Structure formats: C-alpha cells, structure tokens
Amino acid sequence: MSDSDDNPPRKKLKVDAVSAPVDVDKAEEVDLPRPEVGKNNERKPRLCPYLDTIDRSVLDFDFEKLCSVSLSRINAYACLVCGKYFQGRGTSTHAYLHSVGDFHHVYLNLHTLKFYCLPDNYEIIGN
Questions:
Q1: What Å distances lie between residue 95 and 5, 82, 123, CA to CA?
Q2: Is the pLDDT confidence value at 40 over 60?
C-alpha cells in the first residue's frame, strides 16, 4: 500500500472573490487544507492564524446560549469576532455560513468550551 492510498484526495471548494452569493459559473476552485489526523483517525488540534481577529470588547457571555438565527440551544457557538451566537459547525449551519459570509473564523463551543476555526473546522490549541 502506497502513501497516496492513505491520504484521501483534497477537497475543492468553489468560491467567489466577493462576499455575495457564489455564482458557480464564475467561481474558481481553491484547495482546502487537509486536517491533520492523529491516532484512531481523530483530528489533531492546531494553531489558528485568525486569533488576532478576536474582539474582546464585544464578548458578553451573560446572554442566553442560543443561536441568533434559529433560536436553538443545540450546538451553540459564540463568534469571538462579533459576539453573536450561532448553531453548528457543519457546512450548512448558521455558524459556518456566518464564517464564510462575514469572514469571522474563531468560535467557542458554549457547551464544551473548546475553540474552533471555521470554515476549516479544526480545533484551536491553546498556548
């Protein structure tokens, strides 16, 4: 078995340079980074280049922990750039769409208190 058999092919995402909805005909393909995988196929946490975008002045964790769009308490994440709460981390969730639409990348899971970088969907390690 060769090394190339162990690594799945890289995913491609169609993106547009403008924050408007993506026009698939005019979009270009961009390589997404592969998450680092450790033992037992679990993702390794890594450093995030967007930590300097966190705005502590807008963060207030006294609010009810629910998504500002769906009003759901399930899988609530705090955007550490604007302070709003969003649901989920998957590609069709409110947090993911907020990260892509507004270029806000650093989120805190309000239940587990783990930090994540979206839309790349990896856990951020602490210093």
A1: 33, 12, 15
A2: no
Please state the pTM of the whole predicted model: 0.64
DSSP SS3 for 99: helix
- Average pLDDT estimate for 35-53: 68
pLDDT of 47 over the 70 cut: yes
Please give the full DSSP string across 1-27, using - where no structure is assigned: --HHHHSPPPPEEEE-SSSSPP-TTT-
| CA count, 13 A, side-chain hemisphere, 82 | 13
Token output for 112: 């587990």
